[in-house]
Amino acid sequence: MKKEFNEELTIILPLPGGLLSPNCTVGSIGGRFAKAGAIKKYRRLAKKAVEDAQIDTAPWDLVRVNAIFFFKQKRRRDPDNANGSLKSAYDGIKDSGLVIDDDYEHMKRGEPQFLYDREFPRVELTIEKL
User: Fold this and answer.
1) What GO molecular function annotations does the UniProt record carry, in alphabetical order (predicted)?
2) Looking at the whole model, is its pTM more than 0.85?
């Protein structure tokens, strides 16, 4: 019996800023431009992180993405908002060509974990080929 190993990739990104939160509303044209710029930048960061890994087996048909958030401070966090703030990162992963699409048929999203690191706040996204 041949045993297959699962490929996976972990990318490290800065914590998504407040403009990327699903709760962030923009009431002005300047605010909309700022939000669009933040989305575009975060999407590019995720795309570049995946491309830098030079995965030869892409595109993957089905993946699971697990997020671990490392915050400076301990406090309660909302897992739905955390996953929502990563939408542009998921788009960047798709843009990189690693996965066929970022819909639920091709990209499963795990429940985010919240840990603490005062020195290096970040989010680690582990993309596992299923």
Assistant:
1) magnesium ion binding
2) yes
